[in-house]
Amino acid sequence: MTLEKLFRLDGQVAVVTGGARNLGFDQASILAEAGAHVVITSRTLVAAREAAARIMRDYKVEALPLELDQRDHAQVAAAVAKAAAWKGRLDVFINNAGGGSGQSASHLLERSPADVTDMIQTNLVGALHCCQEASRVMVPQKRGKIINIASIAALIGRDRRMYVRHGMKGQPIDYAAAKAGVLGMTRDLAGLLSPHGIHVNAISPGGFGRENLPPAFRAEYGDRTPLGRMGRDGMDIKGATIFLASAASDYVTGLNLVVDGGFSLWH
Ligand SMILES: NC(=O)c1ccc[n+]([C@@H]2O[C@H](COP(=O)([O-])OP(=O)(O)OC[C@H]3O[C@@H](n4cnc5c(N)ncnc54)[C@H](O)[C@@H]3O)[C@@H](O)[C@H]2O)c1
Fold first, then answer.
1. What is the dihedral of CA 80, 85, 86, 91, to 10 degrees?
2. Distances (CA, A) of 96 to 111, 142, 183
3. How far is the CA of 20 from the centre of ligand 1 (A)?
4. Can you give the pLDDT at residue 222?
5. pLDDT score, position 170
């Protein structure tokens, strides 16, 4: 197998949920660069359309924008059906949508039950709905790659003093619970779907440094990271994504690929 054949996705169809911005957009971009037609979902159709237009402008592929709130199973079923009908196939499904902290305080003692429920519903139940519907298309095809985006929050506890020092809210416990659920789901689903030729893997990113984070926080987080910095948009998620989406990972399933600059090593 040549390098080209290992990593190219020419003519394939890939869905990226929450693909209109940040990590989702980076993932859609690398898949498109590798030759896949991409379906970009967002809760806002306008955002999905803008991202799809950018993808089509920058790469020689087609892009289909879809509106999707993955908390609602009926919406997931409809979106996956549209994605599969678009070109009659579904090769890669990236469960990227998620995150969020809700309106209430993040500390468990002050957190509202509504925010806890919404967090689990978005990050775990929504991802499970997507896995279920993607599998319904992929099993009859006898092929497919599902990639679930978890987080290092699923693996390690947080030193919340760092967030407090920089006047930040910090991540709620329910986020860690949801992402740990995503990892459990990934492992079990990988075994369940392996006889059908479907690969299920996860990527657990560490913190990505963005303009909305206080510079002093970014500096401290980088200092606590073996590779000396936070993750970078436009670059650091792409390698893991193309590896798990392509033939390069054809003998890999049930993996959690940690992309955190080594942050979790020191915790
Ligand atoms: N940014 C980080 O540092 C980081 C670290 C670890 C893991 N992650 C995970 O990576 C993924 C992408 O993160 P990001 O930083 O690019 O997030 P982001 O907030 O920029 O994008 C998340 C996307 O998910 C979508 N989304 C949220 N709720 C949704 C719902 N109910 N239905 C459908 N779509 C919904 C949003 O509209 C958005 O497009 C998330 O799953 C996040 O938890 C991010």
1. 60
2. 25, 23, 13
3. 10
4. 97
5. 87
Ligand 1 atom nearest 230 alpha carbon: 3
φ/ψ region of 167 (left if φ > 0, alpha if ψ in -120 to 50, else beta) reads left
Percent of the chain whose pLDDT exceeds 90: 96
| CA 27/CA 24 separation, integer angstroms | 5
pLDDT, tens digit, for every residue of 120-177?
Answer: 999 999 999 999 999 999 999 999 999 999 999 999 998 999 999 999 988 999 999 9
Atom index in ligand 1 nearest the CA of residue 25 equals 16
Q: Which domains does the chain have, with CATH numbers?
A: 3-266 (3.40.50.720)
The residue to which tokens 């479907």 are assigned? 198
Distance from C-alpha of 8 to C-alpha of 77, rounded to nearest angstrom: 28
Task: Please work out whether the CB of residue 19 comes within 6 Å of at least one atom of ligand 1.
Answer: no
Is the pLDDT score of 207 beyond 90?
yes
| 25 Cβ inside 6 Å of ligand 1 | no
**Which of 43, 50, 117, 237 most suits a substitution to test ligand 1, by most atoms within 8 Å of the C-beta?**
43
SS3 93: strand
**Catalytic pick from 59, 163, 175, 221?**
175
Residue 175 among the catalytic residues: yes
Sign of CA dihedral 53, 72, 116, 177: negative
pLDDT band at 267 (very low <50, low <70, confident <90, very high): confident
